[in-house]
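Worked example 2:
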Amino acid sequence: MHEKQWSRRRALTLGGRAAATVALGSLITGTRAADALAADASVARRFDIAATSHSLLWNETIHPGTVMQSFGFDDLRGHLYFVQVLDEVDAGPAGRLRVTRTNLAGDVLGEMILRDGAGTGWGHGMSVAVESTPVDVRLWVEVDGAVREDGLDCTGRALARIPFVDGATLTPFSAGVEKHRLIRGATDVTCALDPVNNRLVQRYVVAGTARYAVYSLDDVVARRYHPVAWFAEPSLARDGRPSTVSSAWPRPTARPATAAGLIVEIQGHAVYDRHLYILAANLRDEAHLIAVDLRTGRVVQRRNLDPGAYPQVLQKAEGMAVQRAGGPARLCYGFAGGELGARTTTISYVESVI
Protein backbone atom coordinates (compact mmCIF):
# COMPACT_ATOMS: atom_id res chain seq x y z
CA MET A 1 0.00 0.00 0.00
CA HIS A 2 1.14 3.60 -0.65
CA GLU A 3 2.88 5.14 2.37
CA LYS A 4 0.37 7.97 2.65
CA GLN A 5 -2.49 5.52 2.61
CA TRP A 6 -0.97 3.32 5.31
CA SER A 7 0.23 6.04 7.66
CA ARG A 8 -3.04 7.99 7.58
CA ARG A 9 -5.35 4.93 7.55
CA ARG A 10 -7.50 6.80 5.05
CA ALA A 11 -11.01 5.41 4.61
CA LEU A 12 -10.57 5.28 0.85
CA THR A 13 -9.79 2.34 -1.35
CA LEU A 14 -6.65 2.16 -3.46
CA GLY A 15 -8.62 2.73 -6.61
CA GLY A 16 -8.98 -0.32 -8.81
CA ARG A 17 -6.95 -2.43 -6.38
CA ALA A 18 -10.26 -2.83 -4.61
CA ALA A 19 -12.76 -4.91 -6.55
CA ALA A 20 -16.09 -3.42 -7.49
CA THR A 21 -19.16 -4.81 -5.74
CA VAL A 22 -20.17 -7.46 -8.23
CA ALA A 23 -21.83 -10.83 -8.26
CA LEU A 24 -19.45 -13.65 -9.05
CA GLY A 25 -19.82 -14.50 -12.71
CA SER A 26 -19.35 -17.97 -14.14
CA LEU A 27 -16.76 -18.51 -16.82
CA ILE A 28 -18.13 -16.84 -19.90
CA THR A 29 -16.51 -19.41 -22.13
CA GLY A 30 -18.40 -22.17 -20.37
CA THR A 31 -17.69 -25.90 -20.50
CA ARG A 32 -15.24 -25.59 -23.35
CA ALA A 33 -13.04 -23.32 -21.23
CA ALA A 34 -13.29 -25.64 -18.23
CA ASP A 35 -12.19 -28.54 -20.44
CA ALA A 36 -9.28 -26.51 -21.79
CA LEU A 37 -8.15 -25.59 -18.31
CA ALA A 38 -8.27 -29.22 -17.23
CA ALA A 39 -6.75 -30.72 -20.36
CA ASP A 40 -3.07 -30.28 -19.53
CA ALA A 41 -3.33 -30.11 -15.74
CA SER A 42 -0.69 -32.25 -14.10
CA VAL A 43 -1.70 -31.50 -10.50
CA ALA A 44 -5.26 -32.19 -9.40
CA ARG A 45 -4.88 -30.84 -5.86
CA ARG A 46 -4.76 -27.33 -4.44
CA PHE A 47 -3.05 -25.61 -1.56
CA ASP A 48 -4.87 -25.97 1.75
CA ILE A 49 -4.84 -22.34 2.82
CA ALA A 50 -6.09 -23.39 6.27
CA ALA A 51 -2.92 -25.43 6.90
CA THR A 52 -0.16 -24.48 9.32
CA SER A 53 1.84 -21.45 8.17
CA HIS A 54 5.63 -21.35 8.13
CA SER A 55 8.10 -18.47 7.81
CA LEU A 56 10.45 -17.90 4.90
CA LEU A 57 11.54 -14.38 5.89
CA TRP A 58 10.81 -12.78 9.25
CA ASN A 59 10.91 -9.01 9.72
CA GLU A 60 13.85 -8.64 7.32
CA THR A 61 15.10 -5.28 6.06
CA ILE A 62 15.31 -5.35 2.26
CA HIS A 63 15.19 -1.63 1.50
CA PRO A 64 13.93 0.23 4.54
CA GLY A 65 12.34 3.23 2.88
CA THR A 66 8.93 2.08 1.65
CA VAL A 67 6.51 -0.82 1.88
CA MET A 68 7.17 -3.98 -0.11
CA GLN A 69 4.31 -4.16 -2.63
CA SER A 70 4.93 -7.58 -4.20
CA PHE A 71 7.49 -10.34 -4.67
CA GLY A 72 8.22 -13.27 -6.97
CA PHE A 73 10.60 -16.25 -7.17
CA ASP A 74 13.25 -17.27 -9.68
CA ASP A 75 13.27 -20.93 -8.65
CA LEU A 76 16.05 -21.90 -11.08
CA ARG A 77 18.54 -19.56 -9.42
CA GLY A 78 17.21 -19.33 -5.89
CA HIS A 79 16.41 -15.63 -6.14
CA LEU A 80 13.61 -13.38 -4.92
CA TYR A 81 12.43 -10.20 -6.62
CA PHE A 82 10.76 -7.42 -4.64
CA VAL A 83 8.90 -4.36 -5.91
CA GLN A 84 8.52 -1.13 -3.91
CA VAL A 85 7.35 2.37 -4.70
CA LEU A 86 10.46 4.57 -4.67
CA ASP A 87 11.07 6.55 -1.49
CA GLU A 88 10.72 9.89 -3.26
CA VAL A 89 8.30 12.78 -3.23
CA ASP A 90 5.50 12.13 -5.75
CA ALA A 91 6.89 8.65 -6.60
CA GLY A 92 3.46 7.05 -6.16
CA PRO A 93 1.48 9.31 -8.51
CA ALA A 94 4.37 9.20 -11.00
CA GLY A 95 4.50 5.38 -10.99
CA ARG A 96 8.17 5.12 -9.99
CA LEU A 97 9.27 1.72 -8.70
CA ARG A 98 12.33 -0.08 -7.34
CA VAL A 99 12.93 -3.76 -8.21
CA THR A 100 15.34 -5.55 -5.87
CA ARG A 101 16.87 -9.00 -6.32
CA THR A 102 17.86 -10.98 -3.21
CA ASN A 103 18.78 -14.51 -2.25
CA LEU A 104 16.29 -16.59 -0.27
CA ALA A 105 17.67 -15.18 2.99
CA GLY A 106 16.82 -11.64 1.89
CA ASP A 107 20.39 -10.52 1.19
CA VAL A 108 20.37 -7.88 -1.56
CA LEU A 109 22.07 -8.99 -4.80
CA GLY A 110 21.10 -6.14 -7.09
CA GLU A 111 18.43 -3.62 -8.03
CA MET A 112 17.02 -1.63 -10.89
CA ILE A 113 14.85 1.49 -11.02
CA LEU A 114 11.68 1.98 -13.06
CA ARG A 115 11.14 5.71 -13.65
CA ASP A 116 8.51 7.72 -15.44
CA GLY A 117 9.24 9.26 -18.80
CA ALA A 118 7.39 11.58 -21.18
CA GLY A 119 4.61 11.90 -18.61
CA THR A 120 4.07 8.14 -18.34
CA GLY A 121 4.94 5.94 -15.36
CA TRP A 122 4.70 2.28 -14.40
CA GLY A 123 2.17 1.76 -11.66
CA HIS A 124 1.78 0.70 -8.03
CA GLY A 125 3.68 -2.60 -8.21
CA MET A 126 0.90 -4.70 -6.67
CA SER A 127 2.13 -7.81 -8.49
CA VAL A 128 5.39 -8.92 -10.09
CA ALA A 129 5.54 -12.20 -12.04
CA VAL A 130 8.87 -13.90 -12.71
CA GLU A 131 9.37 -15.78 -15.99
CA SER A 132 12.55 -17.81 -15.45
CA THR A 133 14.37 -19.98 -18.00
CA PRO A 134 17.93 -21.38 -18.05
CA VAL A 135 18.83 -18.56 -20.44
CA ASP A 136 17.41 -15.47 -18.73
CA VAL A 137 14.83 -13.93 -16.41
CA ARG A 138 11.95 -11.73 -17.51
CA LEU A 139 9.76 -9.80 -15.10
CA TRP A 140 6.12 -8.98 -15.74
CA VAL A 141 5.01 -5.68 -14.18
CA GLU A 142 2.33 -3.10 -14.81
CA VAL A 143 3.17 -0.19 -17.11
CA ASP A 144 1.62 2.89 -18.75
CA GLY A 145 0.27 3.99 -15.39
CA ALA A 146 -2.74 6.27 -15.16
CA VAL A 147 -2.82 8.70 -12.24
CA ARG A 148 -5.86 8.22 -10.04
CA GLU A 149 -8.21 11.14 -9.66
CA ASP A 150 -7.37 11.45 -5.96
CA GLY A 151 -3.78 12.16 -7.06
CA LEU A 152 -2.20 9.74 -4.56
CA ASP A 153 -1.19 6.90 -6.84
CA CYS A 154 -1.31 5.45 -10.32
CA THR A 155 -2.05 2.00 -11.70
CA GLY A 156 -1.05 0.30 -14.92
CA ARG A 157 -3.06 -0.01 -18.12
CA ALA A 158 -0.81 -2.62 -19.76
CA LEU A 159 1.71 -5.32 -18.89
CA ALA A 160 5.44 -4.95 -19.44
CA ARG A 161 7.84 -7.88 -19.90
CA ILE A 162 11.32 -6.67 -19.01
CA PRO A 163 14.77 -8.14 -18.35
CA PHE A 164 16.29 -7.59 -14.92
CA VAL A 165 19.53 -5.63 -15.33
CA ASP A 166 21.37 -4.79 -12.14
CA GLY A 167 22.00 -1.05 -11.87
CA ALA A 168 19.79 -0.14 -14.83
CA THR A 169 17.14 2.57 -14.94
CA LEU A 170 14.23 2.06 -17.33
CA THR A 171 11.31 4.20 -18.41
CA PRO A 172 8.20 2.83 -20.13
CA PHE A 173 9.86 3.78 -23.44
CA SER A 174 13.29 2.23 -22.90
CA ALA A 175 14.66 -0.36 -25.29
CA GLY A 176 13.88 -3.85 -24.07
CA VAL A 177 10.51 -2.93 -22.55
CA GLU A 178 8.05 -5.28 -24.23
CA LYS A 179 4.46 -4.08 -23.71
CA HIS A 180 1.27 -6.13 -23.89
CA ARG A 181 -2.17 -4.54 -23.79
CA LEU A 182 -4.37 -7.61 -23.53
CA ILE A 183 -7.72 -5.88 -23.06
CA ARG A 184 -8.53 -2.44 -24.42
CA GLY A 185 -9.80 0.04 -21.90
CA ALA A 186 -8.58 -1.96 -18.90
CA THR A 187 -7.06 -0.27 -15.86
CA ASP A 188 -5.41 -1.62 -12.71
CA VAL A 189 -3.70 -4.28 -14.82
CA THR A 190 -1.52 -6.88 -13.05
CA CYS A 191 -0.71 -10.54 -13.66
CA ALA A 192 0.52 -13.82 -12.19
CA LEU A 193 2.16 -16.81 -13.91
CA ASP A 194 1.13 -20.43 -13.40
CA PRO A 195 4.32 -22.51 -13.12
CA VAL A 196 2.47 -25.77 -13.77
CA ASN A 197 0.69 -25.07 -17.04
CA ASN A 198 2.64 -22.08 -18.40
CA ARG A 199 -0.34 -19.76 -18.19
CA LEU A 200 -0.70 -16.07 -17.50
CA VAL A 201 -3.65 -14.83 -15.44
CA GLN A 202 -4.33 -11.12 -15.74
CA ARG A 203 -6.34 -9.13 -13.22
CA TYR A 204 -7.91 -5.95 -14.61
CA VAL A 205 -10.75 -3.49 -14.11
CA VAL A 206 -13.22 -2.46 -16.80
CA ALA A 207 -16.22 -0.21 -16.10
CA GLY A 208 -15.66 -0.52 -12.36
CA THR A 209 -15.65 -4.32 -12.36
CA ALA A 210 -12.57 -6.33 -11.40
CA ARG A 211 -12.06 -9.48 -13.47
CA TYR A 212 -9.49 -12.19 -14.25
CA ALA A 213 -8.61 -13.58 -17.67
CA VAL A 214 -6.61 -16.76 -18.28
CA TYR A 215 -4.17 -17.01 -21.23
CA SER A 216 -1.46 -19.26 -22.57
CA LEU A 217 1.81 -17.51 -21.72
CA ASP A 218 3.26 -18.50 -25.10
CA ASP A 219 0.26 -16.91 -26.82
CA VAL A 220 0.67 -13.65 -24.93
CA VAL A 221 4.39 -13.46 -25.74
CA ALA A 222 3.46 -14.04 -29.39
CA ARG A 223 0.81 -11.27 -29.07
CA ARG A 224 -2.13 -13.61 -29.52
CA TYR A 225 -4.48 -12.29 -26.86
CA HIS A 226 -7.21 -14.91 -26.77
CA PRO A 227 -8.24 -15.82 -23.21
CA VAL A 228 -9.14 -19.39 -22.37
CA ALA A 229 -11.54 -18.15 -19.70
CA TRP A 230 -12.43 -15.13 -17.64
CA PHE A 231 -14.59 -14.40 -14.61
CA ALA A 232 -15.52 -11.63 -12.18
CA GLU A 233 -13.57 -11.24 -8.96
CA PRO A 234 -15.45 -12.72 -6.00
CA SER A 235 -16.23 -10.77 -2.86
CA LEU A 236 -13.05 -9.97 -0.95
CA ALA A 237 -14.80 -9.61 2.40
CA ARG A 238 -13.67 -11.94 5.19
CA ASP A 239 -17.12 -13.51 5.48
CA GLY A 240 -17.78 -13.65 1.74
CA ARG A 241 -20.43 -10.93 1.78
CA PRO A 242 -20.24 -8.10 -0.75
CA SER A 243 -17.46 -5.69 0.20
CA THR A 244 -17.81 -1.95 0.66
CA VAL A 245 -15.56 -0.83 -2.17
CA SER A 246 -15.19 1.78 -4.88
CA SER A 247 -13.32 2.08 -8.14
CA ALA A 248 -10.66 4.63 -9.06
CA TRP A 249 -12.87 6.38 -11.59
CA PRO A 250 -14.87 8.28 -10.49
CA ARG A 251 -12.94 9.44 -7.44
CA PRO A 252 -13.64 7.37 -4.30
CA THR A 253 -15.64 9.08 -1.58
CA ALA A 254 -14.90 8.99 2.14
CA ARG A 255 -16.95 6.66 4.32
CA PRO A 256 -17.70 6.77 8.04
CA ALA A 257 -15.02 5.27 10.28
CA THR A 258 -17.48 2.61 11.38
CA ALA A 259 -17.43 1.24 7.84
CA ALA A 260 -13.64 1.11 7.54
CA GLY A 261 -13.49 -2.58 8.34
CA LEU A 262 -15.74 -3.33 5.37
CA ILE A 263 -13.58 -1.56 2.79
CA VAL A 264 -11.52 -4.39 1.34
CA GLU A 265 -8.51 -4.18 -0.98
CA ILE A 266 -6.69 -6.85 -2.93
CA GLN A 267 -3.06 -6.99 -1.82
CA GLY A 268 -1.76 -9.76 -4.08
CA HIS A 269 -2.68 -12.76 -6.19
CA ALA A 270 -1.01 -15.95 -7.39
CA VAL A 271 -1.98 -18.90 -9.55
CA TYR A 272 -1.03 -22.57 -9.35
CA ASP A 273 -2.50 -25.15 -11.70
CA ARG A 274 -6.30 -24.92 -11.53
CA HIS A 275 -6.64 -22.41 -8.71
CA LEU A 276 -6.22 -18.68 -8.17
CA TYR A 277 -5.22 -17.43 -4.72
CA ILE A 278 -6.00 -13.91 -3.48
CA LEU A 279 -4.59 -12.00 -0.51
CA ALA A 280 -7.00 -9.31 0.71
CA ALA A 281 -7.19 -6.92 3.66
CA ASN A 282 -9.28 -4.09 5.00
CA LEU A 283 -8.17 -0.77 6.50
CA ARG A 284 -8.01 -2.36 9.94
CA ASP A 285 -5.27 -4.61 8.56
CA GLU A 286 -7.48 -7.67 8.93
CA ALA A 287 -6.13 -9.97 6.22
CA HIS A 288 -7.34 -13.21 4.72
CA LEU A 289 -6.69 -15.67 1.90
CA ILE A 290 -9.14 -16.78 -0.77
CA ALA A 291 -8.87 -19.81 -3.09
CA VAL A 292 -10.79 -19.68 -6.38
CA ASP A 293 -11.35 -22.51 -8.87
CA LEU A 294 -10.26 -21.26 -12.30
CA ARG A 295 -12.64 -23.66 -14.02
CA THR A 296 -15.75 -22.21 -12.40
CA GLY A 297 -14.72 -18.86 -10.90
CA ARG A 298 -16.10 -19.99 -7.54
CA VAL A 299 -14.53 -19.54 -4.11
CA VAL A 300 -13.58 -22.94 -2.66
CA GLN A 301 -11.86 -21.87 0.58
CA ARG A 302 -11.22 -18.84 2.78
CA ARG A 303 -8.91 -18.28 5.71
CA ASN A 304 -8.71 -15.35 8.10
CA LEU A 305 -5.12 -14.54 9.03
CA ASP A 306 -4.84 -14.04 12.79
CA PRO A 307 -2.76 -10.91 13.49
CA GLY A 308 -1.79 -12.48 16.82
CA ALA A 309 0.51 -14.80 14.88
CA TYR A 310 2.76 -11.84 14.06
CA PRO A 311 3.23 -10.03 17.40
CA GLN A 312 6.47 -8.33 16.36
CA VAL A 313 5.33 -7.30 12.89
CA LEU A 314 3.12 -4.32 12.12
CA GLN A 315 0.97 -6.44 9.86
CA LYS A 316 0.09 -5.05 6.46
CA ALA A 317 -0.60 -7.74 3.89
CA GLU A 318 1.43 -7.23 0.70
CA GLY A 319 2.08 -9.65 -2.16
CA MET A 320 1.67 -13.33 -3.10
CA ALA A 321 3.76 -15.80 -5.10
CA VAL A 322 4.35 -19.53 -5.58
CA GLN A 323 7.75 -21.08 -4.80
CA ARG A 324 8.63 -24.49 -6.29
CA ALA A 325 12.34 -25.07 -5.64
CA GLY A 326 13.80 -27.54 -3.15
CA GLY A 327 10.77 -29.59 -2.15
CA PRO A 328 6.99 -29.22 -2.12
CA ALA A 329 5.50 -26.17 -3.80
CA ARG A 330 4.71 -23.31 -1.44
CA LEU A 331 2.00 -20.67 -1.55
CA CYS A 332 3.71 -17.59 -0.11
CA TYR A 333 2.15 -14.36 1.12
CA GLY A 334 3.84 -11.26 2.47
CA PHE A 335 3.52 -8.60 5.15
CA ALA A 336 5.11 -5.18 5.52
CA GLY A 337 6.21 -4.09 8.98
CA GLY A 338 8.22 -1.47 10.77
CA GLU A 339 7.77 2.27 10.93
CA LEU A 340 7.66 4.90 8.19
CA GLY A 341 11.11 5.10 6.62
CA ALA A 342 12.22 1.82 8.22
CA ARG A 343 9.97 -0.83 6.70
CA THR A 344 10.56 -4.56 7.04
CA THR A 345 9.40 -7.62 5.10
CA THR A 346 7.92 -10.90 6.32
CA ILE A 347 6.98 -13.80 4.02
CA SER A 348 4.93 -16.74 5.27
CA TYR A 349 3.81 -19.83 3.36
CA VAL A 350 1.66 -22.95 3.37
CA GLU A 351 2.70 -26.10 1.50
CA SER A 352 0.02 -28.64 2.39
CA VAL A 353 -2.25 -29.67 -0.46
CA ILE A 354 -5.69 -31.28 -0.50
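Residues 60 and 345 are 5 Å apart (CA to CA). The radius of gyration is 18 Å.
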